[in-house]
Amino acid sequence: MKSFAKLQDFAPSLAIIWCFSFKPERLEGETTLTDRGFDLTFRTADDPSLSLIKYGEFLYDNLIVFSPSIEDFGGNINVETITAFIDGGGSVLVAASSDIGDPLRELGSECGIEFDEERTAVIDHHNYDVSDPGQHTLIVADSENLLKAPTIVGKSPLNPILFRGVGMVADPDNPLVLDILTGSSTSYSFFPDKPINQYPHAVGKNTLLIAGLQARNNARVVFSGSLDFFSDAFFNSAVQKAVPGSKRYSQTGNYELAVALSRWVFKEEGVLRVGEVSHHRVGEIAPPNAYTVTDLVEYSIVIEKLSDGKWVPFDGDDIQLEFVRIDPFVRTFLKRNGGKYSVQFKLPDVYGVFQFKVDYNRLGYTHLYSSTQIVYAERPLTDNHRSLASYGLKDGDVVILRQKENVEPRPPGHFPGLPRIDFSSIAVPGMSTQQPQQPAQHLRSSPPEAPSFPQGLDNPALLRDMLLANPHELSLLKERNPPLAEALLSGDLEKFTKVLVEQQQDRARREQERIRLFAADPFDLEAQAKIEEDIRQQNIEENMTIAMEEAPESFGQVVMLYINCKVNGHPVKAFVDSGAQMTIMSQACAERCNIMRLVDRRWAGIAKGVGTQKIIGRVHLAQVQIEGDFLPCSFSILEEQPMDMLLGLDMLKRHQCSIDLKKNVLVIGTTGSQTPFLPEGELPECARLAYGAGREDMRPDEIADQELAEALQKSVEEAGMSTQLTNCVT
After folding, report:
1. Is-contact 208 113, C-beta < 8 A?
2. Which domain holds residue 510?
3. pLDDT at 717
4. How far apart are CA 485 and CA 558, in angstroms?
5. pLDDT value at position 197?
6. pTM surpassing 0.70?
7. For the stretch 286-297, what's the b/e string if a residue is b when 16 or more beta carbons lie within 10 angstroms of its beta carbon?
8. What is the pLDDT of residues 324-382, one digit of tens each?
9. Same domain, 685 and 633
10. Quick one: 278 and 354 in the same domain?
11. Which of 60, 128, 270, 594 is the most exposed place for a label (fewest CB within 10 A)?
12. Which residues are catalytic?
């Protein structure tokens, strides 16, 4: 029997055969697997010493199974072992026959191949050899039935192929299975000596004679339904179809096909690798630390293939490069120059962490993947005389403002300051400066050094101006730090500075105490808990830093969705909220729109959500004008609702509305009209406040509890008044 190929010198391979009389030998001076670099080990299928794995390592690179009728392998080899071998990247060549046993049938099923039953055979009454006048199971397959992949089946035209064996079908849901050789349209698989009383397992072109698989880890498997396909008799046999006038060939194409298949399955052909990868700006030779928007870059990659044991340049014109963040922003073909592929393109105006990615799949070749990550930084806007539009900024872009660092020496300050402690490795919230390290005894002997306030975030005047210019930050300050907020709103810079410095000193003292506790006994349970909390806070800070770099838009304020409408002819800015169950209107807005006369107070109650409000009653029907449409609407009237009107889920579903954030419009489904959402500058004042006035020093849960208590108290009082009135009437 003749044999074939290699991937590397002396690649260890195990051949499992059904008897030693079937052992491959040299025939007519042709090169065998051994002569081509494979270290072959022959074992019979029931050999008790059979083994693929030893000490957790695979003993072989390739496996040949030419024992179709085996029912149980010897040693420690079974179907699970072979599938694990494939999962580890091993190559497997399997030959079956009409006497196929359960192990090979199960192995085929694991690889997406289903063999027909034992004792069945592929039959073709139109394409059989002249030497088979009986059951027509000696099939003559034309080379046109081969897979159109020269890397797998060879390049030269082949003579007809002889086949006698069991048929297969491929799993239609497995995209990795390859139909290497199929039967003709007149072929089918069934029992040769039985009448056909049921639909055959395989019919026509769906009948697989030889099938292959390349797994996602590039492991390769070939299944042949015929063991005779690899025999010397079939290699050297003449072939002629039993059709009058058909051509007679002196030799089959089995040997050439078997050689090509073995070269592919044992990875002598169709193997790709990535060589040198480079990227840089056009006109430069080295990659920068970070790219900026609209940079013109050049990317190149060297791709090689294995040919006759040597790596040579790969020749392909269908290789694409993708420039990816989460989704591809650029997808373009690479231009070939020998084995080097390159392309120039302009980076998009979106920054973040990107990848140059080449993900190449080609029939017959190993999967090629290369990914190079780069930092794609923002462009600094340094010219204050240019407009944002001239920098290419559009709606939705993010502009990050950074405070310029002052590199000049800091002048001495005039305020009681912090001890001179090294905080270089400790993140102190609110501190943006660092003091030089001093000996430990200096903490006891030297007086506190007054801090200086440069042009940074700890400059009281600058910090005061920033907070006063940002209503949202001011609201948060009132909530989280009432003493500092009170000093800020007093208008007295000296008072604000004094409170700020005191809080910084207090924070520094706590931090010093924490460090002392760590140094005193790191194994103390309380110290351990504080160390754990410190590590957790560092992880949180790192997570936030990564988020600010890769998704800075998530830290921006979200503009609420408001639309212009009219109620009873009065203009109203309505908040669109699909998370609210019902449509509501404030009492003040209802009075302006002159619909309080329609309020049904039997629907009074309490509305709970983010806060609590008393429901006065319900207006069952009123017209709301949106653009040119007049829509019937119902309102629940709330007593102290800060926003005028909220369109809830009840009315949105009633009029089949949809929120189109891409176009930034509200679509009225029942009429097809659209109305734009208001820009931030036209939002009502209530859309900018975090909490109501007078509650800045309360937590959200305290505010909700207080509102609920007030609403219940009002309900009780009104119920008492109603009872008194009833008693008076009676």
Report:
1. yes
2. 460-521
3. 55
4. 24
5. 87
6. no
7. eeeeebebebeb
8. 888 888 899 998 887 789 999 888 877 777 888 999 999 999 999 998 888 766 666 66
9. yes
10. yes
11. 594
12. 577
> Domain ends where: 266, 285, 300?
266
Residue 639 lies in a domain: yes
Region of residue 112 (phi > 0: left; psi between -120 and 50: alpha; otherwise: beta): left
Which token pair is 374? 């780069």
Structure tokens at 287: 């990659």
What type of residue is 536?
Answer: R
Percent of the chain with pLDDT over 90: 28
- From residue 604, give the alpha-carbon distance in Å to each of 506, 612, 614, 623, 708: 50, 14, 8, 22, 15
Sheet hosting strand 187-190, strand order edge to edge: 121-124, 187-190, 202-203
If one compares 239 and 719, the residue with the highest pLDDT of the two is: 239
CATH number for the domain spanning 342: value is: 2.60.40.1930
CB atoms within 10 A of CB 652: 20
On whether both 261 and 302 belong to a single domain, the answer is no
Q: Quick check: 632 and 619 in contact, CB under 8 A?
A: no
Short-list 265, 280, 356, CA closest to 319: 356
Structure tokens of 356? Answer: 């140059």
**pLDDT of the residue at 242:** 86
Question: Within this chain, do residues 88 and 221 fall inside the same structural domain, yes or no?
Answer: yes
Domain check: are 100 and 189 in the same one? yes
Q: Are residues 117 and 95 in the same domain?
A: yes
Q: Distance between CA atoms of 730 and 720, rounded to whole angstroms?
A: 15
276 and 229 in a common domain: no
Instruction: Tell me the angle at which helices 79-87 and 102-110 cross, rounded to the nearest 10 degrees.
Output: 30
Residue 292's pLDDT is 78
Our count of domains for the chain comes to: 4
Is the predicted pLDDT of residue 461 greater than 90, yes or no? no
Do 240 and 154 lie in one domain? The reply is yes
- Please give the torsion angle defined by the CA atoms of residues 171, 172, 178 and 180, in that order, rounded to the nearest 10 degrees: 90
Output the domain CATH number for residue 126: 3.40.50.880
pLDDT digits (tens, 9 = 90+) for 154-178: 887 789 999 999 999 999 889 999 9
* Terminal alpha carbon distance of the chain: 117
Percentage, residues of the chain above pLDDT 70: 77
C-alpha 486, offset from chain centre = 47
The Cα–Cα gap between 40 and 226 comes to 22
Q: Is the pLDDT of residue 144 over 70?
A: yes
Q: Over the chain, what is the mean pLDDT?
A: 79
pLDDT, tens digit, 9 for 90 and up, residues 30-61: 446 677 777 778 888 888 888 888 888 888 88
Backbone angles phi, psi at 395, to 5 degrees: -60, 135
State the Cα–Cα distance between residues 101 and 654, nearest whole angstrom. Answer: 65
Long-range contacts of 318-321 (CB under 8 A, 24+ apart): 318/362, 319/358, 319/360, 320/358, 320/360, 321/356, 321/357, 321/358
Pull the structure tokens for residue 681: 């500058």
- Residue 401 or residue 326, greater confidence: 326
